[in-house]
Amino acid sequence: MKQEVELKLELPRGAVDAFERSAVLPSQGGRAMLEAVYFDTPDKQLQALGYTLRIRRSGDERIQTVKADQGETGGGLFARAEWEMPVAQDEPVLDTRTPIAAALGEAAGTIAPVFHVNVERRTWLISEGRAKTELVFDQGMVRAGDRQAPICEIELERKAGEPAALFALARRIESVAPVRLGVAAKSERGYRLLEAASACFKAEKVSLKAGARAVDAFQTIARACVRHYRRNEDLLLDNYDPQALHQTRVAVRRLRSALTLFKPMLAEADVTRFQDELRWLAQLLGEARDLDVLIQRTEAGQLHDRIHEVRGPVHAEVVEALDSRRVRGMIIDIVEWLTVGAGKADADRQQLRDEPAEQFAARRLQHFHRWVVKHGRRMTKLDDQRRHEVRKKAKKLRYASEFFSELFAGTKKERRRYVRYIETLEKLQDELGALNDLVTMPSLLARYGLTDDAAMVKGGGSKKKRLAAAADAHEELADAKRFWR
């Protein structure tokens, strides 16, 4: 078994010529046509277990590769256990040299091809000081049945030196071609083709290792947020969809919440730097989201048409921003920081970074819970701004609860307590969200000169009734048993 560490970059097909002509690439490199078949059981047990199994053919040579997701993939930098060996035919060899047979048991006998990948691969070895990086450029297609998806990606694999060298090379590439961070392995692209096309991707459960340090938990959580963002960003850039926009915005908010949650152990300058950029992006996405929601609440007619007109330029502004060097660079910056910088800060914060994640999580969850309970009292008497602050803090509490759920869900009783707590918190969020919509809708309409048609907007309900419901939900949360105890 060996450890594979690589950084993926997505390259637009229109930028291939600029990349290939650039001074980034050495004059000498390799070229090969690769054909790979990926295997799994009919019910995709390997995928569920976090393994991929493929046989790749180049000329007369066949190499079988097994990769294991170790919880470090997907947020830009891929670090995976890998087992390779030559095979004679296009059929997997499942013996003790790989973990597949032991993981599947009797189901190993049902393994069959599920999709194919065909690429032209160009390879260069780049040496800079003590660092040696293999640069691989793949162009081709992944196919599953009658469906297919293009591949045009760059992989930077560390051969010697520190991971920082991968990012230094990535920046040189980004200076000549508009690359963006890649978060999907070829195997994931293939598995997507086996399912119905998605309008959006919701946040995946964060897998935290028992006994992990608090700083390791932060890096895992932040990488999951980056992956959530990039998956939906790709959908938006391909074809604007309100659901993908919403999930892109949620991913940004989750990442901002993670920075706030772990702020005590991080360098203040780093947190400020990324929060400022993410806040700008969140506001841009929020404007588009508000108009998407508004048009959904408006019946067909003149107001609906007018909202559609003003929404178009806002959507275009979002796509332009996502495709900008500012946003592309920011995401790569964040992943570089998570890889080589987030674990470093002032010496007086080292104790917090080394603290067991469970202890840190329990303390921070308690802090946010107490804040929401204290500042949400007398809900019906709070002004709009203070109630909005409670809403934002409750949202951070919700995200923190989701981030840390696996640390406190070892038994059925603990899992039930977690579910009940989240249900109670969701109820409060729903009521506070509806109240926020009632408050902000007039200003949104006014901003686009639509105040004369406000009566045409559906929903919202009575503010008095919403306040009463929010007060009841807040009382339930105050009385709820905390799952982190």
Automatic annotation (TrEMBL):
Gene3D superfamilies the record matches: CHAD domain, Hypothetical Protein Pfu-838710-001
Superkingdom of the organism of origin: Bacteria
Coiled coil: 411-438
Domain CHAD: start-end pairs: 211-485
InterPro entries: CHAD_dom (IPR007899), CHAD_dom_sf (IPR038186), CYTH-like_dom_sf (IPR033469), CYTH_domain (IPR023577), YgiF (IPR039013)
Residues of the CYTH domain: 2-197
GO MF assignments: inorganic triphosphate phosphatase activity; metal ion binding; transferase activity
Keywords of this entry: Coiled coil
Protein name: Ceramide glucosyltransferase
Organismal lineage: Bacteria, Pseudomonadati, Pseudomonadota, Alphaproteobacteria, Sphingomonadales
